[in-house]
Amino acid sequence: MLKPLVLHLSGVQDTAPALTVPSGFACEKRPGRREYLRVCLSPDDAGRPVAVLASGGALSSLATSEGLVEFAEDLTAIRVGDALPYRPHAEFG
């Protein structure tokens, strides 16, 4: 998580677009706050990757997740099948 902060403070623009993956879960939140959810990619019935929430508490879900999906501040709900911006942890390495 430190690398993006250092790059941002150095004035580097984000040039890599996020991947888009469908949601395999539903959740809700209040508007006005951006959240990043810890997820793993799991194949659906057709073998395509979908984002599923990583299980466990804050630290264990971070350790077992493969990346983050963005829950934008203007959204209040994510439904199964919604397209979500996904960033793999390797991108932050």
TrEMBL record:
Source domain of life: Bacteria
Domain MoeA C-terminal: 22-84
Protein name: MoeA C-terminal domain-containing protein
Natural source organism: Methylobacterium longum
Lineage: Bacteria, Pseudomonadati, Pseudomonadota, Alphaproteobacteria, Hyphomicrobiales
